[in-house]
Write a structure and sequence with these properties.
The chain has 323 residues and is of the alpha/beta class. The chain folds into two domains: 34-122 and 225-253, Rossmann fold, CATH 3.40.50.12080; 135-203 and 261-319. It has 14 helices and ten strands. The protein has helices at residues 6-31, 45-53, 56-61, 75-85, 107-111, 156-164, 168-177, 182-201, 208-211, 229-243, 265-268, 288-301, 303-312, 314-319, and strands spanning 36-40, 63-65, 88-93, 119-122, 135-136, 154-155, 221-223, 226-227, 279-281, 284-286. The strands form four sheets. A four-stranded parallel β-sheet has the order 2-1-3-4. It has a two-stranded antiparallel ribbon with strand order 5-6. Strand 3, helix 5 (107-111) and strand 4 (119-122) form a beta-alpha-beta unit. Helix 2 (45-53) packs across helix 10 (229-243) and helix 6 packs across helix 12 (288-301). It is globular, with a radius of gyration of 21 Å.
Length: 323
């Protein structure tokens, strides 16, 4: 018989407390007499939930139950959510595919538990890498990406250096001296529109048309999948419009303002905004030498990640003129 470690027991207890809190909130929402509503999606869903909760018009109309994002939800919470959905009248959901992480958390899988009277409003998984052409995910297996050290994301320049067998000094020189062409950057942006524009086109509240305005280029996202608060506010305004509700946004902190990704002057061009010279994680600026050393050392232990990244991002490396 395997004895659980202390850490496993702590995690199990935390999950049990979170499940109990969810079930209590769900019961209160059902008893409130207002239509029950949920927000379903990735890391962008909790701040959208919070903004909706802070809206007097929305709070008067719906009883909103907080739901863990799909990357963090447990199997027990999925079962509890399925039970709640049978009593739900409004689902605000992102396009999550079926069986994500082996759980039935795909949007269509979850909406199937709701009554026929339930309204579903689809909003996009917002992604904006135009200011961050070097920031990528690496997926050694489909739909599962692997976090890199310190910043969790991968820098395609450091990845290219690992593929080419460069040392830390050579990689530093590559990052310092490399300048992408305007055509290459335009091709990378076109790739993004082809890949992520489909999320937007099949949503009830499209956002990329607004995000891609020149005045939003450098300020709309903190990193490729973390929109700034004003973007989330605009999304919530559009959700209110779908529901025929007034919306008056208030002030508040940046819910997804960590980490902060650099923006190169060459990428920014003549658009409004200021370049950002380094990664900022937990409020601390990360020196490039430290980041390069950590990534190269980790890549040396994970040739599978290097091979997967080389294949997945071959087109981007070519378009940016990287080895």
């Amino acid at each position: 018989m395997t004895v659980p470690t202390r850490q496993a027991l702590v995690v199990r207890a935390a999950h049990a407390r979170r499940l109990a809190a969810f079930e209590l909130r769900a019961a209160r929402a059902v008893r409130s007499g207002r239509p029950v509503a949920v927000v379903l999606g990735n890391c962008q869903a909790p701040p959208v939930h919070d903004l909706l909760s802070a809206s007097p018009a929305f709070a008067r109309t719906y009883a909103l139950v907080p739901v863990a994002p799909v990357h963090a939800i447990t199997a027990a919470e999925v079962h509890a959510l399925q039970r709640l959905l049978t009593r739900t009248e409004l689902i605000l959901g992102q396009p999550v595919g079926p069986d994500y992480r082996g759980l039935e958390v795909g949007l269509e899988q979850l909406t199937a538990h709701a009554p026929a009277s339930c309204r579903t409003i689809r909003w996009p998984s917002m992604f904006w890498d135009a200011p961050f052409p070097y920031t990528v995910y690496v997926r050694p297996s489909p739909r599962v990406h692997v976090d890199a050290p310190i910043i969790t994301y991968h820098d395609v320049r450091i990845l290219a250096a690992a593929v080419a067998g460069m040392n830390a000094a050579e990689t530093s020189a590559l990052l310092r001296d490399h300048r992408p062409t305007a055509d290459g950057l335009a091709e990378v942006r076109a790739d993004m529109w082809r890949t992520y524009g489909s999320f937007d086109r099949f949503s009830d509240v499209p956002m990329l048309d607004w995000v891609q305005r020149p005045e939003h280029f450098a300020s709309a996202f903190w990193t490729i999948n973390h929109p700034a608060r004003f973007v989330l506010v605009e999304l919530v305004r559009r959700l209110h419009a779908q529901l025929g509700l007034p919306y008056v946004p208030g002030d508040g902190p940046e819910p997804l303002g960590d980490p902060i990704t650099p923006i190169d002057a060459a990428v920014l061009g003549d658009r409004p905004g200021s370049p950002r010279s380094a990664w900022v994680v937990d409020g601390q600026t990360i020196p490039w030498d430290r980041l390069i050393a950590a990534h190269l050392a980790w890549y040396a232990t994970r040739p599978d990640v290097v091979a997967a990244g080389a294949a997945e991002h071959a087109d981007r490396r070519a378009r940016l003129g990287l080895p």
